[in-house]
C-alpha cells in the first residue's frame, strides 16, 4: 500500500510536483496517467527514495521517511525510466547481484532467480551476457530484477516499452497474478488502451498536480466520454496548453 | 553473508576483469616502465652510474602505475553506471550511498594496488635480468613501500572515483583520468629541472613525497623512519577526504539523474 500526501518537488526553482496526493491500495493496479513532464516519473522516483521530496509525506506499508529510505526499499520493487543492466554479466548474474544487495540468503536467492527467469521466459538466455541483448530482452531482465525479492509494492514506469506482443501479454498476466496475490502495483504508461485493460484505478496528474482519480469507468462518467483516452484528453486539456 | 559494500566490490571486480580491453591497458601501463628501463639498460650497459639513473627512472614509472592500475575500472564504475543508466537501479536497493561509494572504491583500490605490485615485480625481474644490483636496505624498502607508497594507490583510487562520479560518460571520465596519470610524471620532471624544490616539507606531500622517498631509497640516502610514516598518514587523510567528497556527490539529484 502506497500513500502519498502533499508531495512537492522543485528542480532549479521550477516545480515538477506540487501538492500531489494519491493512494494505491494493496491488491490493485493503480495507473498513473499524465502527459510528458507531468510529474509521473519524479513521483515514482520519490516513492522509491532515489529523490528526496522538498515536502510532503510518502508511506509505503505505513513506513515513512522517518523509518529511513532503506527500510522502505525492502518493500519496493521498481522498474523506472533508468533501467540499465550490466552488459558483462549474464542475466542470472545480474539477478544474483541484486538479490545479494537485498540481503537474500543464497538458497532462497537461487530459487527466486530460477522462478523469475521461468516467469519471464528468460530460460534460453539466462546464461548469456546481456551485452547485445535486444531492448525487450533488457527490459525483461530489468523487470526480473524488480520482481526478484518478491516486493509487496511494485512501481513500473512504462514497463512494456520495447516488448513484443506475446511478452506484453505474459507481463499483463503476471501483473494480474501479482495483484490477485495482494501486491500493490503502480503502473505508469502512455498507452491508454493498456491502462484501460490492466488498471483497476487511474490517477491523472497534470503539471505536477492531481487532476482526477477513480476507476476508468468513473473517469469516463465524470467527463461524459466513451473512452479513457477521451476522458484523459478532456481532463488534461483543462490545465495544459492543449494541442488538440 | 557479505556486507553490501563487499557485494558491490566483488561484482565490480568481476566486471572489471571481464573487460579485456581495460585489463590489457592497465597491464600495459604497469609494464611500460620496466620495459623502457629494460631497453635503456641494454644501451647504457657497463657505463658508470647507469644503475642509479635507471633506478631513478623506476620511481616515476612506479608512481604512474599506482595511478594507472585502477583508471579504467574507475571510469566504468560510476561514470559508466551513469552512461548506461544503471546507477538508479543500483540506488533503488536497500544499500546506503556510502556502501556504494565504499564498494566501488575497494575495487578501484584493488586494481591500483595490483598495478603497483605488477610494476614492482616486473622491475625486480628487469633489474635481475640486466644484472643490475641495487644495494637496498630491504627493511627500509618494505617500510617505504607499505607505509609510504601503498597509500598513494588508495589516494589515486579516491581521486579517480571522485572524477568518475562527476563525469556523465566514460569518454568524459577518460579525458580527465588520463590527465591525472601524468601527475607523477610532471612532478618527477619538476624535481629534475628544479632540484631546489626539494624542500623538507615536500617529503610529506602526496605524490611528491613518494617520489622523494623512492629516490632516496635507490640512491641510498638516509631517511628518518617518521618520514614514510608521516607521508603515509597525510596520503591516507587526503584519500579519505577525496573518497568522502565522492560519496557526497552521490547524494546530488543532478549526479543521480543528470544526463
Description:
The complex is a heterodimer of chains A (244) and B (259). With 244 residues, chain A is of the alpha/beta class. Helix content of chain A is 39%, strand content 24%. In chain A, the strands form two sheets. Chain A has a six-stranded mixed sheet, with helices on both faces. In chain A, strands 2-1-4 form a three-stranded antiparallel sheet, with helices on one face. In chain A, β1 and β2 (14-24) form a beta hairpin. Chain A is globular. With 259 residues, chain B is mainly alpha-helical. Chain B is built from twelve helices and no strands. In chain B, α6 crosses α11 (226-249) and α7 packs parallel to α11 (226-249). Chain B is elongated. The interface between A and B is medium-sized, with 32 and 27 residues.
Concise overview:
Chain A is of the alpha/beta class and 244 residues long.
How is the secondary structure organized here?
The complex is a heterodimer of chains A (244) and B (259).
Chain A: E1 2-11, E2 14-24, E3 28-33, H1 40-48, E4 55-60, H2 69-74, E5 76-79, H3 91-101, H4 106-119, H5 135-147, E6 153-157, H6 165-180, E7 184-188, H7 192-198, E8 201-206, E9 209-214, H8 216-223, H9 228-237
Parallel strand pairs in A: 3-7, 3-8, 5-6, 6-7
Antiparallel strand pairs in A: 1-2, 1-4, 8-9
Helix pairs in contact in A: 3-4, 8-9
Chain B: H1 4-18, H2 20-43, H3 50-68, H4 71-83, H5 87-91, H6 97-129, H7 138-166, H8 170-180, H9 183-193, H10 208-219, H11 226-249, H12 253-257
Helix pairs in contact in B: 1-6, 2-3, 2-6, 3-6, 3-9, 3-10, 4-6, 4-7, 4-8, 6-7, 6-11, 7-8, 7-10, 7-11
Encode the helix/strand succession of chain B as letters: HHHHHHHHHHHH
The fraction of residues assigned to DSSP E strands of chain B is under 5%
Task: Enumerate how many helices of chain B there are, as a single number.
Answer: 12
Please give the most extensive interface between any two protein chains, plus how many residues each contributes: A-B, 32 and 27 residues
Distance between the termini of chain A: 36 Å
Name the poorly predicted regions of chain A: none
Instruction: Say what oligomer this is.
Output: heterodimer
Terminal CA distance of chain B reads 35 Å
Q: What characterizes the major β-sheet of chain A?
A: 6 strands, mixed
Helix percent of chain B reads over 70%
3D shape of chain B: elongated
- Calculate the mean pLDDT score of chain B and round it: 86
Number of DSSP helical runs of chain A: 9
**Secondary-structure element string of chain A:** EEEHEHEHHHEHEHEEHH
What structural class results from the helix and strand content of chain B? mainly alpha
